[in-house]
Amino acid sequence: MITWSYRAGVAALCLLGLTGCEPGQGGFLGAAPNMALSEARMADGTVTLVPPRGFCIDRKSLGQRFALLARCDKLGAPSAAADAPLGIITVSISEAAAEQGLPSAPQTAAAFGLSNLSALSETPSRVIFRAVGEAPVDGMAPLHWRGTARLGDKFMGLALYGPENGRVLTGEGRRILDELIDGSGAGS
Predict the structure, then answer these.
(1) 139 closest CA partner among 12, 1, 21, 55
(2) Which domains does the chain have, with CATH numbers?
């Protein structure tokens, strides 16, 4: 059984991060220099987190088992943002026993109190779906993407949040999570 314990931390990080979404305001997702990382080692070096195009890792959020990603310009790297949609990605890493399968979309939904599952995509190494749940902060849509992937002996839990009617809520959100999983899997 996976323990999903990063929800409160996500909400706190997102609250802090959204203070930087308006030009001229502070907040750790504001345009502070040297906050954006293009990749990072996690889980005692066994996982290399590689963000999707246009997203960067927030240096201040990075731990061995958790990271927050945002569009690069929100982390002080405007030239790396490309045409990425506005969004916040949370990544958590947990241990996975050799025989342990990925949690299904309904199992993940039950663990987080999610409803209205849609756009489900499952393979032996990843599960990605869209669902409705409590938005972590004001300004974020309750509809968001969730994903779980197996990287060796680790599980990577993902959540992608965006503004109401934002591009990340469309199929583009699935592509972003697929790209994150593929890049991190190749780098790990």
Answers:
(1) 21
(2) 7-187 (3.40.1000)
